[in-house]
Amino acid sequence: MTTSFEYNRLNKDDAAVLMVDHQAGLISLVQDYPPNEFKNNVLALADIAKFFNLPTILTTSFEQGPNGPIVPELKEMFPDAPYIARPGQINAWDNDDFVAAVKATGKKQLIIAGIVTDVCVAFVALSAIEAGFDVFVVTDASGTFDETVRAAAWERMSAAGVQLLNWFAVACELHRDWRNDIEGLGNLLSNHIPLYRGLMTSYFARAGQ
Amino acid sequence: MTTSFEYNRLNKDDAAVLMVDHQAGLISLVQDYPPNEFKNNVLALADIAKFFNLPTILTTSFEQGPNGPIVPELKEMFPDAPYIARPGQINAWDNDDFVAAVKATGKKQLIIAGIVTDVCVAFVALSAIEAGFDVFVVTDASGTFDETVRAAAWERMSAAGVQLLNWFAVACELHRDWRNDIEGLGNLLSNHIPLYRGLMTSYFARAGQ
Amino acid sequence: MTTSFEYNRLNKDDAAVLMVDHQAGLISLVQDYPPNEFKNNVLALADIAKFFNLPTILTTSFEQGPNGPIVPELKEMFPDAPYIARPGQINAWDNDDFVAAVKATGKKQLIIAGIVTDVCVAFVALSAIEAGFDVFVVTDASGTFDETVRAAAWERMSAAGVQLLNWFAVACELHRDWRNDIEGLGNLLSNHIPLYRGLMTSYFARAGQ
Amino acid sequence: MTTSFEYNRLNKDDAAVLMVDHQAGLISLVQDYPPNEFKNNVLALADIAKFFNLPTILTTSFEQGPNGPIVPELKEMFPDAPYIARPGQINAWDNDDFVAAVKATGKKQLIIAGIVTDVCVAFVALSAIEAGFDVFVVTDASGTFDETVRAAAWERMSAAGVQLLNWFAVACELHRDWRNDIEGLGNLLSNHIPLYRGLMTSYFARAGQ
Amino acid sequence: MTTSFEYNRLNKDDAAVLMVDHQAGLISLVQDYPPNEFKNNVLALADIAKFFNLPTILTTSFEQGPNGPIVPELKEMFPDAPYIARPGQINAWDNDDFVAAVKATGKKQLIIAGIVTDVCVAFVALSAIEAGFDVFVVTDASGTFDETVRAAAWERMSAAGVQLLNWFAVACELHRDWRNDIEGLGNLLSNHIPLYRGLMTSYFARAGQ
Amino acid sequence: MTTSFEYNRLNKDDAAVLMVDHQAGLISLVQDYPPNEFKNNVLALADIAKFFNLPTILTTSFEQGPNGPIVPELKEMFPDAPYIARPGQINAWDNDDFVAAVKATGKKQLIIAGIVTDVCVAFVALSAIEAGFDVFVVTDASGTFDETVRAAAWERMSAAGVQLLNWFAVACELHRDWRNDIEGLGNLLSNHIPLYRGLMTSYFARAGQ
Amino acid sequence: MTTSFEYNRLNKDDAAVLMVDHQAGLISLVQDYPPNEFKNNVLALADIAKFFNLPTILTTSFEQGPNGPIVPELKEMFPDAPYIARPGQINAWDNDDFVAAVKATGKKQLIIAGIVTDVCVAFVALSAIEAGFDVFVVTDASGTFDETVRAAAWERMSAAGVQLLNWFAVACELHRDWRNDIEGLGNLLSNHIPLYRGLMTSYFARAGQ
Amino acid sequence: MTTSFEYNRLNKDDAAVLMVDHQAGLISLVQDYPPNEFKNNVLALADIAKFFNLPTILTTSFEQGPNGPIVPELKEMFPDAPYIARPGQINAWDNDDFVAAVKATGKKQLIIAGIVTDVCVAFVALSAIEAGFDVFVVTDASGTFDETVRAAAWERMSAAGVQLLNWFAVACELHRDWRNDIEGLGNLLSNHIPLYRGLMTSYFARAGQ
Question: Which residues form the Isochorismatase-like domain (chains A, B, C, D, E, F, G, H) (predicted)?
Answer without folding.
Answer: 16-165
